[in-house]
Design brief:
By secondary structure, this protein is mainly alpha-helical. The chain has 8 helices and no strands.
Length: 169
């Protein structure tokens, strides 16, 4: 119990200072908060050794900075690997229809969108969707029917809405 009280006092007395220092060093508050939290967690795990340091606060600040640098390195390495492994390929332009479908999908409910995408784009059956989503087949059928109706409303040109199909030119 003495260790916990001692660590709590150390944390309370130093966390704002360490956070301010790290934020000033890296320039991103959210990253600084994450790294400082990680550094204090590591300090707690090693508290018997950390409290014997000349400056436990400097230890935490150094670890927090290293956590941040490590995260940056991982990101850079991930980007390099992606660029290296991604073959140079020509990407076709996105069609107007594609943009319209994506926009319409964003306008329907999440459940309907999931059912429509799994059925029409992924190619799953109603039974497979029910198993993946964790619901019954009738619910999937209802979501598909309502999703199709909602999509149709968003994909129909405004001048034709409300006009009987047979009356269209």
């Amino acid at each position: 119990m003495r260790d916990a009280a001692e660590f709590d006092a150390f944390y309370s007395a130093s966390v704002q200072r360490v956070l301010g220092h790290l934020y000033a060093m890296i320039g991103n508050r959210a990253e600084a908060e994450d790294a400082v939290a990680e550094a204090y967690a590591r300090a707690w795990d090693r508290w018997t050794a950390v409290r014997e340091c000349d400056s436990p606060e400097a230890w935490v600040r150094r670890v927090a900075y290293r956590v941040t640098v490590s995260a940056w390195r991982k990101t850079v390495n991930r980007l390099r690997a992606h660029r290296r492994d991604a073959p140079a390929q020509r990407v076709d332009a996105i069609s107007v229809d594609h943009v319209a479908v994506v926009t319409a999908l964003r306008r329907i409910s999440a459940e309907q969108r999931r059912a429509v995408v799994l059925h029409h784009l992924v190619g799953l059956s109603v039974a497979e969707i029910a198993a993946e989503v964790g619901t019954n087949e009738n619910t999937v059928k209802t979501r598909l029917a309502r999703g199709r109706r909602a999509l149709a409303a968003h994909l129909t040109e405004p001048e034709y809405q409300g006009v009987d199909e047979r009356a269209r030119p």
